[in-house]
Model the fold of this input.
Amino acid sequence: MALISNEDTLKSWNDGPVKQSILEFLKSSTQEGPDYVKPADRIATFDNDGTLWVEQPVPVQLNFLFRVFANTAQNDPSLASKQPYKAILERDMTFFQKAVEQDPEAIMALEGAFAREWSGKTPDEYEAEVKEFFATVKQEKFAANFTDLVYKPMLELFDLLKSYEYRVFVCSGGSREFMRVISEETWGIFKENVIGFSFQVEYHDGVLTRGDTVLGGVAIGPGKVEHIFARTGRLPVFAVGNGDVDIEMLESARFRLLVHHDDDEREYAYENGVEKLRAIAKEKKYAIASMKNDWKQIFR
Amino acid sequence: MALISNEDTLKSWNDGPVKQSILEFLKSSTQEGPDYVKPADRIATFDNDGTLWVEQPVPVQLNFLFRVFANTAQNDPSLASKQPYKAILERDMTFFQKAVEQDPEAIMALEGAFAREWSGKTPDEYEAEVKEFFATVKQEKFAANFTDLVYKPMLELFDLLKSYEYRVFVCSGGSREFMRVISEETWGIFKENVIGFSFQVEYHDGVLTRGDTVLGGVAIGPGKVEHIFARTGRLPVFAVGNGDVDIEMLESARFRLLVHHDDDEREYAYENGVEKLRAIAKEKKYAIASMKNDWKQIFR
Done:
């Protein structure tokens, strides 16, 4: 049941056409009429980096991986000439740009490094490493914990969607297990609603460990839709993203919301990696949330 | 919040130690105290065949596969000498027994037949085939639709678990996509809470099709726990099964309920494929639901 107070949920959003279009879509898709969506179909999917939290100067998970892999390469100098270690040690971002652009060789090198690092480790061991990272590393510009740099307007949107009986999923190109460490406390989203890059799990003699086989490919571009469908049996009705790797997910949804990073003062302003999506969003009249103009408050 | 009327939910269960132990566990695990389970951890997992519906004389999905694969072999006689077609045409159940016992060669042959049959088809095409099967094929002994042979006591248990804020998942060795066709209407369980054997999904130019790569192995034995953890990020707290392939899932849970098929009149009585589980259940004092004695009504 939609609550009477729904309209007040988006407190950090300025009144304007974007907030209005969200409210109107949620009403029309949950009331009898031509736009009605039955409850079972009410799936909302959100990208993570740049959509739910700050992704500059490097995405949070890359920051984590850089530290872990640099440490590994220091302990095993034979790795220094191999990717992704070479790129990390030389601070060469072109390798990671290739991975984002779905270059098979770059992705395979990254997958190999993941496997080398965590294959055979238990979920608890991995979780402890991720928690240590969150407890000790701060975001540069804001000198704050990454989990404090989650966007308040998005958390309000989660609440609003839930009040209309939408089921909210987060789908990221990053590691599912990494996000699951913080998803419940930070987003109020159960681990099972977090979708992303993941490895085979192995269970022997009552012990779970991570294997070295990637499950279902990388969740970027068409891979986002593939992961979402595998997980939910559906395409999203409502989708939110901010980068070119979100295009297919957004195109597969009925309501498309783009987070536009245009606030260099309160967050960042950039167009890199979002050019194609911006062109499509303008042409197809997506809802485009300007951080600068549509959000009263950025961080939770 | 637990509702006052919880105790009345298990209407098709006779009063007795099994019903009592379920009610007591759900109370103690949701009230402050030594057995408390916080809401995020409240995961309940159910096997499907023999736990939620009749699995005799052959599991429903095997019935479906036999028909589809027999038809395929008739259209392509070169397949008649290959597995699983050979076993189906010769009505030789030993091949399928091997698959249940996780024989790698049998599983690979079955996976190949799945890929040959549905690789490149859309989810809608597959769903139409499954719906046609359910609309036309009846269970032999009861001359009834398979979906009418779902156990009413289990549907009541779903409701009871949900009232205690448990999240209910179904995890089967059978195909996830097959179960998802009927999960919402028959069980009241959203597709996304159905876990099982599944294939890579591919998304090209706005069209989803099934690929030919199995994702995460077969969900039997340790594979059940692997699929459950991959899907939820947790082990179950409450688990229900009926066969040897459920042992690892049950052992990974705190409350274990076994469905014992001992009612040849109203359903079936059999011990085949459940001997190991029965021994463990007795030794470790699982809750054992006797269909004959604990269930007032079998079917919904």
